Amino acid sequence: MPIENPDRSTVDRSEIEQFTRLASQWWDPKGPMATLHKFNPVRLAYIRDQATAHFSRDPRAITSLSGLRILDIGCGAGILSEPLARMGATMVGADPADANIDAARTHAAQSGVQVDYRATTAEALADAGERFDIVLAMEVVEHVTDVPLFVRRCAEMVKPGGLMFAATLNRTVKSFALAIVGAEYVLRWVPRGTHSWDKFVTPDELDAAMAQGGLARIDERGVIYNPFADQWRLSDDMDVNYMIVAARDA
């Protein structure tokens, strides 16, 4: 696959500024990232189960991801990176917002968790020749300027036999009603302006971008919210939130 123009960037500076303003509140489970904290257990379990099945590991083992080098691109302040490191993974957390990385490093030091946090981009990491057993692009593809380019550069970093996970929002009428009107304006789960519906990505679009990066989808699941249990769970309904995992041939 040819290397992209190194001057092309998928970083949306307006998005970076928005999330920079929230940097100090990432780890507050009742703050602006409260929904992400509630979403975290289901995506952690999905990553663990898919990864352990793929790499023939015991999902019940405390360090089930030991020996796997994982990139969490768009890691924010490390809400996903830290628990994966606790599972034994060698974690690299990358985010273009310096304030997010500062918050991530501070929290990791306070928690005694080893994560290699870097204020950088997917393009810079790919250009440097970085390679990983697993690349995670969770809740980030809907915030970049060029989804196909971003996904291809992420896929470029997946080792032979490795995996890439992506979680995002589908571009449907239902997602506009629930993720924009409901979550931002009615329930106020996330700050207004967190998402732009026209930047949501359909499963077919994400699947095609992964395929262009040499990856083949091996699983996809929707994620829905259960208001009675106040928790998220996996579902066959991919109309709003969904996750995809794809693999590179060994």
- How far apart the termini lie comes to 16 Å
Q: What is the number of E strands?
A: 8
Based on CA inertia axes, which overall geometry fits?
globular
| Number of helices, counting only DSSP H or I runs of 4 residues or more | 8
Percent range for helical residues? 25-40%
Residue-averaged pLDDT: 88
- The share of residues in extended strands comes to 15-25%
Q: Radius of gyration in whole Å, from Cα?
A: 17 Å
Query: Tell me about the biggest sheet?
Result: 8 strands, mixed
List low-pLDDT spans. 1-6
- Can you write the helix and strand succession as a string? HHEHEHEHEHEHHEEE
What is the structural class?
alpha/beta
**What strand line-up does the widest sheet have?**
3-2-1-4-5-8-6-7
Descriptive account of the structure:
With 250 residues, the protein is α/β, with parallel strands linked by helices. It is 36% helix and 22% strand. It has helices at residues 13-20, 34-54, 81-86, 98-111, 122-127, 147-156, 173-186, 203-212, and strands spanning 69-73, 90-94, 116-118, 132-138, 158-169, 216-226, 231-235, 241-247. An 8-stranded mixed β-sheet has the order 3-2-1-4-5-8-6-7. The chain is globular, with a radius of gyration of 17 Å.
Chain-wise SSE layout:
Layout lengths: L12 H8 L13 H21 L14 E5 L7 H6 L3 E5 L3 H14 L4 E3 L3 H6 L4 E7 L8 H10 L1 E12 L3 H14 L16 H10 L3 E11 L4 E5 L5 E7 L3
Parallel strand pairs: 1-2, 1-4, 2-3, 4-5
Antiparallel strand pairs: 5-8, 6-7, 6-8
